[in-house]
Amino acid sequence: MLVISQQDTLKAVSMAEVMEVVRKTYGEYSAGSADSPLRTAISIEEHEGVGLFMPAFSPEAEAYGVKVVSVFPGNVKHGLPTTTSLMVLNNASTGEPEAIIEGGIVTKMRTGAAAGVATDYLARKDARIVALIGAGGQAFYQLEALLVARPVVEIRIYDIEKSRAEALAEEVKSKLVKDNMKIIVSSSAEDCVRGADIITTVTTSNTPTFPADALAQGVHINGMGSFTPDMQEIDEKVICSADKLVVDALESALAEPGDLVIPINKGRLQTEVIYEIGEIVLGKKSARENDNELTVFKSTGVALLDITCAKLIYKRALEKGLGQQVDLL
Ligand SMILES: NC(=O)c1ccc[n+]([C@@H]2O[C@H](COP(=O)([O-])OP(=O)(O)OC[C@H]3O[C@@H](n4cnc5c(N)ncnc54)[C@H](O)[C@@H]3O)[C@@H](O)[C@H]2O)c1
């Protein structure tokens, strides 16, 4: 069995490869041929912690396994990370454990890749200006994937904690920037999104993160952050006026994120107009059809992506001699 660290994963795979696996996995998910049950949560009350268990089986990738995520907010007091995560990947033909993989980097890369794939299908072909709202743990990989999807020339970053936006801008400049690309730390969300072609929100916000009337025509929005009914990153005016409203998984999208649940409960959003990105991958539904459309992708996360991306990481790590072999017997 192979033990794969975060650094091994970063050496093993590129964002472009992860995006290709995510694209195929969305198709497999929407075809109904994989098994990706709802996650199980356990509460560790003594320490105000939560453990999340997210299993999945992908026949196409010949992989099954589980991601275990621990969220312990009290860790901040001890200088420890609040969220830690580990994946166990098994071989679907034999059941044998193939790898143990640090899970945080799998989450970040697959979530970035999810926005990248959606952008590829839904943003205008000539989209060049990106606005990113929320400069936390996921943000760098969101931008990395958008740069794979389109030849971006300008990135604007906004966070309510300006120091985070500044730190992300420095990281992007040192690791991602290509010739003549402009990196701007915006002083308001409105400045950030005005005139942008692609907007990604990846925050923990409970209220809309940018004003609806600041949007340019033909913009594409990736809503990546909210996952509970009281979380809302995108104004319902934007959601209700979208020409295409696409989600990663209908079951959770209609029940979990406030961005959709709030306008649905008010009777302002008809659920029939919403469809899965996997249906676009399968050729059953349309991607963007013209340059004027307002397109929105809302993601709440699909555990199947963790498993298929873990399989890719495992294969590439084996090919490149990365990771540590451990004999369990
Ligand atoms: N869709 C998915 O598959 C997926 C995967 C991973 C994480 N997430 C979710 O994405 C969100 C962000 O994750 P993270 O790990 O980057 O979190 P994080 O806590 O590291 O960062 C969130 C950032 O958002 C900023 N923020 C909060 N409200 C804001 C607002 N109104 N305007 C601008 N900035 C604001 C915070 O200051 C912080 O920097 C979380 O809600 C997380 O659960 C979704």
Spell out the key features of this protein.
8-stranded parallel sheet; 7-stranded mixed sheet; 329 residues; 11 helices; ornithine cyclodeaminase, domain 1; alpha/beta; binds nicotinamide-adenine-dinucleotide; Rossmann fold
Strand content: 15-25%
Report the uncertain regions.
none
Integer tally of domains = 2
Task: List cofactors, ions and other ligands.
Answer: nicotinamide-adenine-dinucleotide
Q: Which second-level CATH architecture of the largest domain applies?
A: 3-Layer(aba) Sandwich
Instruction: Report the sheet with the most strands, covering strand number, pairing sense and barrel closure.
Output: 8 strands, parallel
CATH homologous superfamily classification of the largest domain: NAD(P)-binding Rossmann-like Domain
Cα separation of the termini: 10 Å
Structure description:
The chain is an alpha/beta fold and 329 residues long. It folds into two domains: 2-106 and 304-325, ornithine cyclodeaminase, domain 1 (2-Layer Sandwich); 123-300, NAD(P)-binding Rossmann-like Domain (Rossmann fold, 3-Layer(aba) Sandwich). It is 35% helix and 23% strand. The chain has eleven helices and 15 strands. The protein has helices at 6-12, 15-31, 103-122, 139-149, 162-175, 189-193, 236-241, 250-253, 258-265, 277-281, 303-320; strands spanning 2-4, 40-44, 49-58, 63-71, 83-91, 97-102, 129-133, 154-158, 182-185, 198-201, 220-223, 244-247, 274-276, 295-298, 324-325. The longest helix is centred in the middle third of the chain and has 20 residues, at 103-122. Nicotinamide-adenine-dinucleotide binds at residues 107, 111, 133-139, 158-161, 164, 202-205, 209, 224-225, 227, 299-301. Nicotinamide-adenine-dinucleotide (NAD) is lined by residues 107, 111, 133-139, 158-161, 164, 202-205, 209, 224-225, 227, 299-301.
